[in-house]
DNA sequence: CTTATCGTTCGATAATCATCGAACAGTGGG
DNA sequence: CCCACTGTTCGATGATTATCGAACGATAAG
């Protein structure tokens, strides 16, 4: 069924703290989130740690992060654009993202 | 073997962010951490959510939190004193605990 | 000393999660 | 139009984690 398709994202109000924490409790997934701090990235450009990670595994990481409300995953041409949901997370859990990602943001 | 015994705790420098996040990614464990914000508590006085939770399950929660470095679990008479490791966590991951526990601390 | 209480450990079972190959579907280029 | 490319889904397997009864040790109280 799916190739480049709109995937479901939780609304801001539906984001659960425990799910966010769980999503970020894996080193690989945390690394992905960190990469998105400086702005959106195409999935192909997002290497996290292991460069030759199987596609399906990588896609699964994105699913966990997306379903938790940490990132947005949208069609972008033939690829996918990954965006950190900073505003939503900041509104829901002030200071959390900065603390986790080690960003002072000022 | 063990009844009231000294249990191993990670040192401040050994505390891993991903383990802390994982420990707090469970609603029950998160509730326990929140209960300790106002100060140490005897384990028996710490009801989290379910009051008639089996002892072994409760003990397991404490183990996860302790091994992650979130709480300290020390002998206290016949019971056990649970303490949130605020200073250690604040030193290692500034702002994290406040954000997670929803405390502004001021 | 004997007994009741507290909480950890052990062991077994169930549930959840991770990993990855294969198949598939949109997209854009030739 | 056809093909190469990207990334999701499915399905199977293995690894972690959760749950809880039972047994044990240590302490405090009587």
From TrEMBL, chains A, B:
Protein origin, superkingdom: Bacteria
CDD domains xref list: HTH_ARSR
Record protein name field: Helix-turn-helix domain-containing protein
SUPFAM superfamilies given in the database record: Winged helix' DNA-binding domain (SSF46785)
Domain HTH arsR-type, chain residue ranges per copy: 9-104
């Amino acid at each position: 069924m799916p190739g480049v398709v709109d995937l479901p994202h939780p609304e801001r109000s539906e984001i659960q703290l425990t799910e966010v924490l769980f999503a970020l409790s894996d080193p690989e997934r945390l690394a992905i989130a960190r990469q998105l701090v400086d702005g959106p990235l195409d999935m192909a450009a997002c290497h996290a740690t292991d460069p030759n990670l199987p596609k399906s595994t990588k896609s699964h990481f994105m699913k966990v992060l997306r379903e938790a409300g940490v990132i947005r995953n949208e069609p972008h041409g033939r690829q996918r654009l990954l965006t950190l949901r900073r505003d939503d997370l900041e509104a829901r859990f002030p200071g959390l993202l900065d603390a986790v990602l080690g960003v002072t943001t000022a």
